[in-house]
Amino acid sequence: MKRIVILLLAVLLGAAVFSACSTKPQQDISQSPAEIVQPEQSPAEVVQPESISPEEAYKRLESEEDIILLDVRTQGEYEEQHIPGSILIPVNDLEKRAEAELTDKDADIIVYCASGKRSSSAANILAGLGYSKVYNMGGIMDWPYELVSGE
Prior knowledge:
By secondary structure, the protein is an alpha/beta fold.
C-alpha cells in the first residue's frame, strides 16, 4: 500500500513539474504574419563595443592621436601600475562621470581593467550611454608593453 501511495505521489509530482515547465504561450497560427504584432524597437540602436587586442591597441595608440585609453580599475590598482597615457574612471563611477569627463561621444575609447571583466561591463555602459567607438581591450595582465606607477 505504501508503495502505491509513493508511486502515485511521484507520478503527480512529475506531472506538476512537467506542466509547469511547459507554460510557454502558444502563438496563434491562424494569424497571418502581417497580423502578428511585433514589439517596438528603440529608435536609436545601441552600437555594440568591439574587442581589440593589446597589440592592435598599442599600434593605434602609437600612430593615432585623440584616442582615449580608459582604465576602469580602482584608484589603488591604477596607482600600482597602469598603461602610460591612460585616464582613470573606475567602472563603479562610470555612469556618473562619463558624460562630464568623456565629452566627445564619437571619440575612439579603448577600455581596459585587470583581467577583462570590468572592461567588458564598462564598454557596454559606454555604448549604452551613446558612445559610438568603444573598444574593449580586456585586461592589463595581457599588456606586454611599458607600465608605469603612480598617479
